């Protein structure tokens, strides 16, 4: 499932290439025909993400709400220019640059992410090509006709004179009015890229500290904190050396505050680079390897049975909240 950084990157893509443009909306698959008819011919005026949900506002004050869920993805094509706030080098969106030790330096060399994670392998800007944005960003084939034919089961197509976005497989895709949007937002926990950081921290700590629920479940509860998915959950808990089974109300307030601040830190890296890079202070070849391959990017995620990078104990895999949880039974106690 796409985590918060991916959805923010998609929203920025819409803000850069669709906001201010009249949109032709359709449903090639047919399942969203009525909703598309409501949006067709209107100008997109705003694009924003909150946690794992994205909201596109049109000039008649209707909103398109999209939650990608487990299988959803947006495919873009056209004369696409990347958001300037998403680092670009050598014609790739999300390219993380390697000349220095900071993964957001302005100059660098090309790397390929062989794991396919929300990644450096994407698009030139601008050029006529297809590319996908979900949990991974991947380049596609060039095309010759405009607009390109829809590929697969496209729930909704948003088309301008120069760009097209095709949505496949979302969990939620609906047209809402402003009160309905507010009702959705009211159920979501704080998002570091949307809410005031101090207020967001206060809300997170206050909510989590009242719950008997294990902290490993609370971090995935979008009403407690927005945007954290399976990868960030495992990595945040390891970085805090926190047992995933600890009830929220048993976690010291200062540890909860540090969890929130670490989420602010990791989300910022994810949005700017397109990578869920959770190991700090990597330099040189180690940094290059981490940015090229997920296996070198994380402390515990997908490392079951492998020795902990700190203590050598084998990383454990279990199920928590119907999702896979990775953790170290020695360091996280």
From TrEMBL:
Entries under Gene3D superfamilies matching the protein: 1.10.8.50, MutM-like, N-terminal
Keywords: DNA damage, DNA repair, DNA-binding, Glycosidase, Hydrolase, Lyase, Metal-binding, Multifunctional enzyme, Zinc, Zinc-finger
Compositionally biased spans, kind Polar residues: 88-100
EC category name: lyase
A molecular-function term among this protein's GO annotations: oxidized pyrimidine nucleobase lesion DNA N-glycosylase activity
SMART domains per record: Fapy_DNA_glyco, H2TH
Location of region: Disordered: 88-123
Chain intervals with Acidic residues compositional bias: 103-116
Pfam families: Fapy_DNA_glyco, H2TH, zf-FPG_IleRS
One GO term (biological process): base-excision repair
Cofactor: Zn(2+)
E.C. number: 4.2.99.18
Protein family membership: Belongs to the FPG family.
Protein name as annotated: DNA-(apurinic or apyrimidinic site) lyase
Native source organism of the sequence: Cnuibacter physcomitrellae
